[in-house]
Amino acid sequence: MDLKELGSRLKAERERQEFTIEQIMELTKISRVNIYAIEDGNKKDFPHPVYAKGFIKNYAKVLGLNSDEIGEEFSKFYSVDEEPEESLQNSFDQNNSAQKDYSVKSSKSSFSSILMILVLIGVLAGFIYYLHDNALLDFGKTDQLEVVVEETPAAETNSEANSEEIEVVVETPAEETTTETQDTEEVKTEEIVIVPEEEAATTPVEEVAPIAQVQGNNVVITAKTDQACWLQATVDGKSIEYVINESQSLPLSYEKSLKIRFGNGGGVDVTYNGKPFVFNAIKGKVKTVDFPISE
User: How confident is the model at residue 11 (pLDDT cuts 50, 70, 90)?
Assistant: First the structure.
C-alpha cells in the first residue's frame, strides 16, 4: 500500500459515510488543501511529516478507523524523523500559509500595513475623545431638559393622588383625619395588587401539563473515548445537524417523535429518560434509530 492507496481508502470511507469535505474540515480542523492532499496521496502538498501524520490520524479517528494503525502505515511511506526546532517552525509557517490560502507578504508591505493601522487607531482615538468632550459639555443641558419634562408627570401624579384621596374619603368615615387617609390609600393600593397576584398564581397551573410531557421524553447522547460523531436529529418534525467530539454530551427533548441518524453509531452511548438505551451499531457505520414516546 502506498500513499495514494492510503488516501483512497480514507476518501472511500468518507464517501461511504456520506461526509462532505466541509464536515471533515469542521470535525478535524484540517484545511481543505491538506484534506485533498491526503486523499490524493499528493506528497508535494503535504505539510511537515509530523503534522501530516497527526492530520491523517485525526482524519481516521473521525471516520471510526484505527488511527494508530493508519499512522504507522503512513510513516512507512513518509518519513517523520525529527528535525531541528528551526526547520519545524518553518514547516509550521508553510502549513499555516496553505490553510489561509494566501502568500506571505514582503517585509516592506508588512511595515506599511502596521503603520497604516497605527494611523487609523490614532484617528479613531481622536474622534472618540472629541465626542466624549462634546458629551460632557451637553450633559448639563440635557439634565435641565429632563427636569422640565419630568415636572409635567409630577403634576399629573399629584392630581391623581388627590383624586384617589377623594375616593378614599367617600368610602371611609368622616371622623378619619388627613393622615389616616394616607394610610388607607396604602392599604387600597395593596388590595389592588392582590388581585393580579391571585390571577398570576392560578394561570401557570394550566401550563404544567405540556412541560411535564417534554420532560418525559429525554435522550442524552455521549461520544465515547477516542470517538467523534456527526448526527442528524429530527425532533418533532424539525431536522437539525450536530457534531459531538470525544466525551461530549448532547441532550434532546421531544414531545411526539425523535429520529436520529448517527454517522458513527458504535461511537456513542445513549440514555433514554435516564436509563441506557441499547441498539446494535458498529463503529464507523451509519445507524438510524427511532425513539419511543413515554406514556
Answer: confident
Assess contact for 39 and 10: CB atoms under 8 A. Answer: yes
CATH at 7: 1.10.260.40
Q: Which domain holds residue 251?
A: 216-291
Q: Could you give the CA distance from residue 140 to residue 236 in angstroms, rounded to a whole number?
A: 58
Q: Do 101 and 34 touch, CB atoms closer than 8 A?
A: no
Helix, strand, coil % over all residues of the chain, rounded to 5: 60, 15, 25
Contacts of 293 (CB under 8 A, 6+ apart): 217, 256, 257
Q: Report the pLDDT averaged over residues 167-176.
A: 40
Residue 58, in any domain of the structure = yes
Do 3 and 77 meet the contact criterion of CB atoms below 8 Å apart? yes
Q: For residue 290, what are the β-bridge partners?
A: 259
From 100, 129, 153, the end of a domain falls on: 100
Last residue of a domain, one of 74, 100, 126: 100
Taking 80 as the threshold, does the pLDDT of residue 21 lie above it? yes
Structural domains counted in the chain: 2
> pTM here?
0.31
- Can you name the residues that pair with 241 across neighbouring β-strands? 232
Say if CB 254 and CB 233 are below 8 A apart. no
